[in-house]
Amino acid sequence: MQIGIPKEIKNNENRVGMTPAGVFELTKNKHVVYVQKEAGFGSGFSDLDYIDAGAIVLDTIEEVYASSDMIVKVKEPIEQEYPLIQSHHVVFTYFHFASSEPLTKAMLKSKAVCIAYETVEDKDGSLPLLTPMSEVAGRMAIQQGAKYLEKPIKGRGVLLGGVPGVPPGRVLVLGAGVVGIQAAKMAAGLGAHVTIMDINMKQLRYVNDVMPSHVVTEFSSEYNIRKRIKDHDLIVGGVLLKGAKAPKLISRDMLKDMRPGTVLVDVAVDQGGCMETTKATTHENPTYIIDDVVHYCVANMPGAVPYTSTLALTNVTLPYVIRLANQGWEKACEKDPTLAKGLNIVNGKIVYEEIAEAFNWSVDAI
């Protein structure tokens, strides 16, 4: 199979769809891999690294798409890429369709096979291709939140860990999934007081068992959220509904109950965000302020640490890429129910129900 690795062109996205080590495995399996010139630079990989691994380096993104049967990316295609995606393509990447109607319509029009990393699902309900980026984003949420709590950046001026004689900062984490647990772990490591909320009591029991005593759990409800936002300095949104829009847990009117300089980090922004005032930002302009509350809503947080993120991503995507390349998408998905869950759009039809529901579309009508 001809496999293409284009350079990511989303704002400040420095990750790349595959490491040279991944390319080596594909070429060892007799596949041809085309890598766009300088695609790996942001992640610390040179064109020579890819050439040594057996790749063919092409100058332009147009050449990569035109030469390839399967495209392996990191982020969803943006508008400039829409015309490049044709009906013969299999596109394997993070799509997050539920948060973008224009992207969904463009991929339907292309009639390409769209396999989304974020909906590949194991039997136990875990999301193996989303997990590593959720781990990165959860940890980064605290790293970024701690920074934006600083007064020169309009935060409350709170040091999360406190100092002797001064109480630590308070962190509220919404969601006890992968993002939430990693965020709580990082915040606890800094010495902050952490409250983590979820509606899944099994998850809360797990958190209670594994976290130190300054991480407390609480059942998530609007009443409890409204109570906690009044005295917490950093609020991290880490809720996820597989393939669907995130629920809005923080409404606009709640901002008035927060102290000036409170920081909101919405990790769920890729799925539309779990806060009513969320709007996607970039690493170039990561924050905005509403009612004296600092919002950090970068849609590709792991793109700020691309070396770590690219390695972590290729570790989990490569086995699936090899299966798709060796067997073709139909046979690979037929043999592997986990991979089959990643099918979102096929030949101009939505095949993942939550996407249609996000836009109130009928699956049969599309």
Structure described in brief:
The protein is of the alpha/beta class. It is 33% helix and 17% strand.
What does this structure look like?
Its EC number is 1.4.1.1. Belongs to the AlaDH/PNT family. This is Alanine dehydrogenase. The protein has 366 residues and is an alpha/beta fold. The chain folds into two domains: 171 residues, 3-Layer(aba) Sandwich (Rossmann fold), CATH 3.40.50; 174 residues, NAD(P)-binding Rossmann-like Domain (Rossmann fold), CATH 3.40.50. It is 33% helix and 17% strand. It is built from twelve helices and 15 strands. The strands form two sheets. An eight-stranded mixed beta sheet has the order 3-2-1-4-5-6-14-15, sandwiched between helices. Strand 1, helix 1 and strand 2 form a beta-alpha-beta unit. The chain is globular, with a radius of gyration of 21 Å. The model has no long low-confidence stretch (mean pLDDT 95).
Please specify the SSE layout and strand pairing.
Elements: E1 2-5, H1 20-28, E2 32-36, H2 47-52, E3 56-58, H3 61-67, E4 70-72, E5 90-93, H4 101-110, E6 113-116, H5 131-148, E7 170-174, H6 178-190, E8 193-198, H7 201-210, E9 215-219, H8 222-228, E10 234-237, E11 263-266, E12 287-290, E13 293-296, H9 306-327, H10 329-335, H11 337-340, E14 343-346, E15 349-350, H12 353-358
Parallel strand pairs: 1-2, 1-4, 2-3, 4-5, 5-6, 7-8, 7-10, 8-9, 10-11, 11-13
Antiparallel strand pairs: 6-14, 12-13, 14-15
